[in-house]
Automatic annotation (TrEMBL):
PROSITE patterns: TBC_RABGAP (PS50086). May act as a GTPase-activating protein for Rab family protein(s). This is Growth hormone-regulated TBC protein 1. It comes from Macrostomum lignano. Residues 56-248 form the Rab-GAP TBC domain. Signal peptide: none annotated. Pfam families: RabGAP-TBC. Keywords: GTPase activation. PANTHER family: GROWTH HORMONE-REGULATED TBC PROTEIN 1, RAB GTPASE-ACTIVATING PROTEIN 1-LIKE.
Length: 323
């Protein structure tokens, strides 16, 4: 099912069914095109593959393509069985295990796959295992809040613990190095980068935020730390991740700038901090973002030019300010 096991209210279901009606035909067309890609095209970093990925990986191929383009499959192949050894024996008073357990029941309680243990659909044990193994392999990170949401949504796609483990490890260590350090320095840096980009591209919004004391750490914590999981509708998150695994972190800024751009009039109409925060909460739930087949193309147009060099330069600036 397109809803990936998430329960919806009647209103949400109506909006969702309308979206699925529009999206199904888009998906069929894309599937046909993907069938024509051969293995060597999939292994390449070609412009054609980049274009295809930006237009969305068909559901039945998503797991394999994520594993391939992220580099996770290559790493799994080099160390078969390593995941199992990490799960070895969980001691009762294991600090990582205790931390993971704390967050398990908070992870998507409205999803049939992450309801309490014991239901046959339950992915709770798989989620625990992947997060525990990850914490064991990466003691400097251990278990970092936010990873539960990211891992849960990965499991719903790859449906395999070992794959999810390597995908998570590749994401944290290769694609987003530094994102999940306990100091949160990287999150602060990304907020600085976003602030500077908004200042340049949406100066009125920048001035508004300054005037009303709205800061990005207040409103974008889950955008960066959860990579939009538990923020945007799930299919939209997967479309963002399609790009994230292939192109890296720039897409996170594309999404943020597009959300803010599409909602700048609503923001500029606010007269106090609480109503501004409300706009930030609503902008990730409206019809705009549910219809990923129209929203995702916008993220490549709305922010206009966004060179990686620029982002790196702003990150370095943030770093210098922190030191």
């Amino acid at each position: 099912h397109m809803d990936y096991g998430f329960e919806l209210t009647d209103d949400e279901r109506r909006a969702f069914d309308e979206f699925v009606g529009d999206y199904a035909s888009v998906l069929d067309r894309r599937s046909g095109r993907w069938q024509s890609l051969n293995q060597s095209e999939l292994q390449s970093r070609s412009g054609k593959l980049k274009r295809f990925i930006r237009k969305g990986i068909p559901r039945e191929l998503r797991s394999d393509v994520w594993m391939l383009v992220s580099g996770a499959q290559g790493r799994l192949n080099e160390r078969p069985g390593y995941y199992k050894t990490l799960l070895g024996n969980v001691a009762e008073d294991d600090a990582v295990a205790n931390q993971v357990r704390l967050d398990l029941h908070r992870t998507f309680p409205e999803n049939v796959h992450f309801k309490e243990f014991g239901n046959s659909e339950s992915q709770m044990q798989a989620l625990f295992n992947v997060l525990y193994a990850f914490g064991k392999k990466n003691p400097a990170v251990g278990y970092c809040q936010g990873l539960n949401y990211v891992t849960a949504l990965m499991l719903l796609v790859v449906k395999d613990e070992e794959k999810a483990f390597w995908l998570l490890d590749t994401l944290v260590n290769r694609i987003l190095p530094g994102y999940y350090q306990p100091s949160m320095a990287s999150f602060q840096a990304e907020c600085y980068v976003l602030g500077r980009l908004v200042q340049e591209k949406l100066p009125q919004v920048h001035k508004f935020m300054k005037d009303y004391g709205v800061t990005f750490p207040m409103v974008t914590l889950k955008w960066f730390i959860c990579l939009y999981a538990d923020v945007l509708p799930v299919e939209t998150v997967y479309r963002i991740w399609d790009v994230l695994f292939f192109e890296g972190s720039k897409v996170l800024f594309r999404v943020a700038l597009t959300l803010i751009h599409l909602n700048q009039n609503a923001l500029l109409g606010c007269r106090d901090l609480p109503s501004a925060i409300k706009v930030f909460q609503q902008m990730v739930q409206d019809r705009n973002v549910l219809h990923c087949h129209t929203f995702i193309p916008q993220i490549f147009k709305v922010p206009q030019s966004l060179p990686m060099k620029k982002i790196e330069q702003l990150r370095a600036e943030a770093q210098a300010n922190q030191d």
